[in-house]
Amino acid sequence: MGPGPSDVHPRILEALGRPTIGHLDPDFVAMMDEIKTLLKYAFQTDNELTLPVSAPGSAGMEACFVNLLEPGDKAVVCVNGVFGNRMVENVTRCGATAVRVDQEWGKPVDPDAVSAALEANPDAKVLAFVHAETSTGARSDAETLCNLAQRHGCLSIVDTVTSLGGIPLYVDRWKADAVYSGTQKCLSCTPGLSPVTFSDAAVAAIKARKHPVQSWFLDMNLILGYWGEGAKRAYHHTAPINALYALHESLVMLQEEGLENAWQRHATMHRALAAGLQSMGIEFVVAEAARLPQLNSVYIPEGIDDAQVRQYLLSKHNLEIGAGLGDFAGKVWRIGLMGYSARRENIELLIRALSDAMR
Ligand code: PLP
Q: Where does the sequence pass through the membrane (predicted)?
């Protein structure tokens, strides 16, 4: 019950152990097509350029920045936690300029501040933000932020590593342009893959680049030769076959459950956990309206030793919860309810184990 990776369902672990076949095998290629279709469902998009990058969420992040930004470009970046900071780092490493919109940790991104930054920087090409900040547990209003990007002629880059499969996410309806995620959170798959999706506008921007994408591995133009619609399936890199079996299984499971039902399950489990924690006098960091059901940040009660409690939970109850990151280190616990971890028996275990640890 940490901030990810979440528990992996036995069906997904079983899929991981299937015999490895070649990355050009017709059966494998058919599965790749299914993965793309299932990812479109998870992202709620018809974007043709929708695929899993063969590396973790950070690579999906980097894929979005290196493909959309060129040296000399400008990006407005919202920073309300660790991962917004990482986005700034990506922008500068592309040789572009980052305009930061900082927000107090634990709060969602402030659309008024973003609007002001976009007004003041009419030459910005990109607006980047994190939908679900795993370091704080805050949910930002992705629809409003994507809308602001559109109104100012910017492409949006949206981090959905923790949101995909856990809370409502509508890539097409919200007109998000470059969206990346991870497999290890609400999809309950093993870590190491990063689903991404690019709108037609984002693809047009990639095609119109003056400089080649500085990363060979993450250059979407090259990856498309293997993953693209009607592509020749030309060798680009050896696909992580077994990891893709696992992703396929997790997406099939998401489809079986139904996306809305998965969102609902996360919300219901969150309410049960919140009731239990609040009955112990434990308080949430994030205001109710902006709380992520899948990542519950709570203040460590006065007089309680952070590391000792987490160590006790792990050794005595075989239960992991997350420590605070950055500004929140030593002050906050992060309790994950992601994917297969978002189950009632886990909540009961957590409440029992935490009461025991704090006695
Ligand atoms: N973005 C967010 C919001 C995350 O929570 C994480 C990982 O926890 C990442 C990006 C990076 O993903 P990964 O650790 O898979 O590289």
A: none
Please state, in angstroms and rounded to a whole number, the distance separating the CA atoms of residues 70 and 288.
Answer: 39
For a ligand 1 pocket test, name from 65, 83, 334 the mutation site with the most ligand atoms within 8 angstroms of its C-beta.
83
> pLDDT digits over 177-186, tens only?
999 999 999 9
Sequence ranges of the binding site for substrate: 334
Has residue 231 got a pLDDT over 90? Answer: no
> Which residue, judged by its Cα, is nearest atom 14 of ligand 1?
57
Least Cα distance to 182 among 165, 168, 198 occurs for 165
Task: Give the HSE-up count for residue 30: Cα atoms under 13 Å, Cβ half-sphere.
Answer: 4
Q: How far is the C-alpha of 264 from the C-alpha of 281, rounded, in Å?
A: 26
Nearest to 196 by CA among 242, 227, 168: 227
C-alpha span between 51 and 194 (Å, rounded): 8
> Which stretch of DSSP H or E encloses residue 251?
helix 241-257
The ligand 1 atom nearest the CA atom of 3: 8
**Cβ–Cβ < 8 Å for 101, 80:** no
Quote the ipTM score.
Answer: 0.99
Cis bond upstream, residue 5 (ω within 30): yes
Angstrom distance (rounded) from CA 9 to CA 251: 12
Question: What is the DSSP secondary-structure string of 82-133?
Answer: HHHHHHHHHHHHTTPEEEEEE--TTS---HHHHHHHHHH-TT--EEEEESEE
Rounded to whole angstroms, how far apart are CA atoms 147 and 150? Answer: 5
Q: 299 — alpha (psi -120 to 50), left (phi > 0) or beta?
A: beta
**Which residue type sits at 330?**
G
Which of 53, 58, 183 for a ligand 1 pocket mutation test, highest count of atoms within 8 Å of Cβ? 58
Cα separation of 91 and 84, whole Å? Answer: 11
Question: Which ligand 1 atom minimizes the distance to the CA of 59?
Answer: 16
Determine the Cα–Cα distance for residues 218 and 71; give it in Å rounded to an integer: 17
